[in-house]
Amino acid sequence: MALVKCKQCGSDVASNAAACPKCGAPPPRGPSALKVTFLVLGGLFSLCFFGTCMAGAIGSANKGASRTGASSGSTPSAVNRPPPKDVEIRSLLSEYADNEVRADANFKNHVIQTDGVVDDVKKDIMNSVYITVGTGRRFEIPQVQCFVADNQVGKAANLSKGSRVRVRGRVQGLMMNVLVKDCEIVDL
Question: Which member of 33, 73, 104, 143 lies 3.0 to 4.6 Å from 134 by CB, making a disulfide possible if both were Cys?
Fold first, then answer.
């Protein structure tokens, strides 16, 4: 049994009492289970929404930085790009789910190539196009979130939820999803 303060007179009242013994006012009640549930779900939704927005903003910032870092009038060629490391999507996602530090050591800043099932094709708040790719399981977290290169937007537009796709890009780490920038869609 916990003691709470009476809203009327300020005296201590047992939380299970029907009324304050001093003034007769009903004791204050804590938040209902329904309110707590809504608060928790609202917090989770906010975290997911803002996490995705932040991931999009970071992806856009990285995309802009890679553009300004390139020499004027030239685009990166396949000759300058290291060969991609073939990675099974299941092992990539399980590595990041198990130990982010170890997964970053193995994959971050490496160009990977993986194939999986398209979950979404969307734009972030900075209007950058991305696709999320996973193993095909429902409610899968994390997934691979590929920010497609500008020359790949047409290919992304042809993708459908549930279709298989092979993507190639540079891993940036984990932020709700495994972020991969400058993605190319290899197979449709």
Answer: 143
Give the mean model confidence (pLDDT) for residues 23-27: 78
Q: Could you give the CA distance from residue 8 to residue 6 in angstroms, rounded to a whole number?
A: 5
Euclidean distance between CA atoms 92 and 86, whole angstroms: 10
Parallel/antiparallel/unpaired status of strands 111-123 and 85-86: parallel
Surface-to-core class of residue 108, CB atoms within 10 Å of its CB (0-12 exposed, 13-18 middle, 19+ buried): middle
One-letter amino acid of 26? P
**Do 54 and 101 share a domain, yes or no?**
yes
Nearest 10 degrees: Cα torsion 154, 156, 157, 162: 150
Q: How many residues in total does the chain contain?
A: 188
- Residue in the block written with tokens 């009903």: 26
How far are the Cα atoms of 10, 71, 94, 168, 181 from residue 171, in angstroms, in the given order? 58, 22, 15, 9, 7
How much is the mean pLDDT over the chain? Answer: 81
Residues 25 and 101 both lie in one domain = no
Domain that residue 13 falls in: 1-30
Return the pLDDT at 68.
45
Query: CA-CA distance, 115 to 51, in Å (whole number)?
Result: 24
Pick from 29-38, 50-59, 107-116, 138-147: least confident: 50-59
Q: Is the pLDDT reported for residue 56 higher than 90?
A: no
Q: Does residue 181 register a pLDDT over 90?
A: yes
Residue 105 belongs to some domain of the structure: yes
